[in-house]
Each structure stands twice: as structure tokens, then as C-alpha cells.
């Protein structure tokens, strides 16, 4: 099932980025590797900015409850892949066309295809007027627009088994926020920049089956 946002507000948030020394007791588990496929239309971003704005807080959250390291890797400037025409009123058509392209790239390059390796296409724009990303339950690949900070975390959450139903609204720091996999982003809410406790449990249990 494809997950859609219908109303999203770009929020400028001050993120508390604290450096945490991770204990070395998770070294025995396979790291979770997130390949970020950078569409040609986001070539103006550098990978340091992307990491800070969209992934540093996500990695911190994922590492806190999965008991494994999370690694980012970048794929860019690949003709036939990073120039993929993703904008389409038919989300299914775009998703499956993308999945076929990614499949071929992964196969041709002898890359991993398993539960702890994900491939996410990052795009400047929406897929269509009400769709900011696409993925399927526990899929190894997906598409996420950079329009709001939480979209990549939203799609990766589905790709790790997370659901809209398990997302929630929290009261944090004097205001209401929504966790990463909410179905719709309400204009009055901020982003919590975490998965809900219920989604953390779903994701951790899913990954525990793949030590
Ligand atoms: Zn969704």
C-alpha cells in the first residue's frame, strides 16, 4: 500500500544534535546500511548538509533502539538511474518503474539485497500534488522527497516495517509533535524527529529476525 501525505508544512526546526558515544556492544550485529540515491535534481545539496538535516537525528534514533550501527552511503551521477523521471500521477507506476531500475543496478553491481540494506531515492519534488514519497511494507527500496525533513525517515520507517497506525502525537518541549510515520502532517504540529514507541518496537522486532 502506498503511503501519502496530503498536507505538509515545511518547518524550520532547531535540532539538538548531541554527539553520543555509542557503546561497542552492538558491534556483533550487522549494521543497517542506508544507500541514498541522489536524484540529479538535488545536485545542489552536498552530502554533509543532507546528513545533518535529514539523517543525523534519524540515525541517532535508529541506533538507540535497534542495537546496531547505521551507515549512510551515497549513490549519485549515474545516467539511467539518478535521472529517473519520478513525477507521475500514477504512484504505482512510478514506484514499480523505480524498483525495476534499482533492481537492475543492485544486480549489475553485485550489491547486497537483504533486510539490513535499503536503497532510497531522494528527490527535490513530490511524485505528484499529494504524494511526497513511496514505499511498500518492508521493501528494500523507496522514493522520498526532500520537501520536509521527515519524509525520508517516514519512507525508511515503512521499509523497516513501521505503520501509520502505530505513529502518534507527543507533547514535547511545550508543543505537540507528530512522530515520523504519521499519515498526514497537520499544520499545527511540529516533527518529533523520532519514531513512536510502538513503531520502534515493530522495527526492532523486524530487524531482530535478521541479526
Ligand atoms: Zn506513510
Question: How would you describe the overall organization of this protein?
Answer:
By secondary structure, this protein is an alpha/beta fold. It has a domain at 30-163 and 197-208: Collagenase (Catalytic Domain) (3-Layer(aba) Sandwich), CATH 3.40.390. Helix content is 28%, strand content 18%. It is built from four helices and eight strands. Strands 2-1-3-5-4 form a five-stranded mixed sheet, sandwiched between helices. Strands 6-7-8 form a three-stranded mixed sheet, with no helix packed on it. Strand 1, helix 1 and strand 2 (70-75) form a beta-alpha-beta unit. The model is unreliable at 1-24 (pLDDT under 50).
In short:
By secondary structure, the chain is α/β, with parallel strands linked by helices. The protein has 4 helices and 8 strands.
Keywords:
211 residues; alpha/beta; Collagenase (Catalytic Domain); 5-stranded mixed beta sheet; 3-stranded mixed beta sheet; 4 helices; 8 strands; globular; binds zinc ion
Biggest sheet overview: 5 strands, mixed
H/E element order: EHEHEEEHEEEH
CATH architectural name of the domain at 30-163 and 197-208: 3-Layer(aba) Sandwich
Structural class: alpha/beta
Spatial order of strands in the largest sheet: 2-1-3-5-4
Query: Kindly state the mean pLDDT as a whole number?
Result: 89
Globally, the shape reads globular
Low-confidence stretches: 1-24
Binned strand content = 15-25%
Q: How many helical stretches?
A: 4
Q: Which ligands, by name, code or SMILES, are bound? A: zinc ion
Instruction: Indicate the CATH topology of the domain at 30-163 and 197-208.
Output: Collagenase (Catalytic Domain)
| Topology, number of strands | 8
The CATH homology group name of the domain at 30-163 and 197-208: Collagenase (Catalytic Domain)
- Helical content, roughly? 25-40%
Termini, distance in Å? 27 Å
Task: Report the radius of gyration as a whole number of Å.
Answer: 16 Å
CATH domain class of the domain at 30-163 and 197-208: Alpha Beta
Amino acid at each position: 500500500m502506498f503511503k501519502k501525505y496530503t498536507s505538509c508544512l515545511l518547518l524550520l526546526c532547531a535540532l539538538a544534535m548531541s554527539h553520543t558515544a555509542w557503546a561497542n556492544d552492538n558491534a556483533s550485529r550487522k549494521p543497517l546500511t542506508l544507500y541514498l540515491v541522489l536524484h540529479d535534481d538535488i545536485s545542489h545539496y552536498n552530502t554533509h548538509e543532507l546528513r545533518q538535516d535529514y539523517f543525523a537525528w534519524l540515525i541517532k534514533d535508529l541506533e538507540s533502539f535497534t542495537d546496531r550501527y547505521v551507515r549512510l552511503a551515497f549513490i549519485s551521477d549515474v545516467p539511467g538511474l539518478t535521472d529517473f523521471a519520478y513525477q507521475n500521477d500514477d504512484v504505482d507506476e512510478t514506484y514499480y518503474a523505480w524498483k525495476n531500475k534499482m533492481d537492475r543496478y543492485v544486480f549489475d553491481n553485485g550489491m547486497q539485497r537483504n533486510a539490513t540494506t535499503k536503497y532510497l531515492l531522494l528527490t527535490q519534488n513530490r511524485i505528484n500534488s499529494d504524494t511526497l514519497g513511496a514505499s511498500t511494507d518492508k521493501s528494500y527500496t523507496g522514493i522520498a522527497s526532500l520537501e520536509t525533513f521527515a519524509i525520508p525517515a517516514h519512507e525508511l520507517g515503512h521499509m523497516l516495517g513501521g505503520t501509520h497506525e502505530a505513529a502518534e502525537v507527543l507533547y514535547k518541549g511545550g508543543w505537540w509533535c507528530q512522530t515520523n510515520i504519521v499519515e498526514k502532517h497537520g499544520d499545527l504540529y511540529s516533527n518529533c524527529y523520532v519514531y513512536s514507541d510502538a513503531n520502534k518496537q515493530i522495527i526492532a522486532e523486524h530487524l531482530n529476525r535478521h541479526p
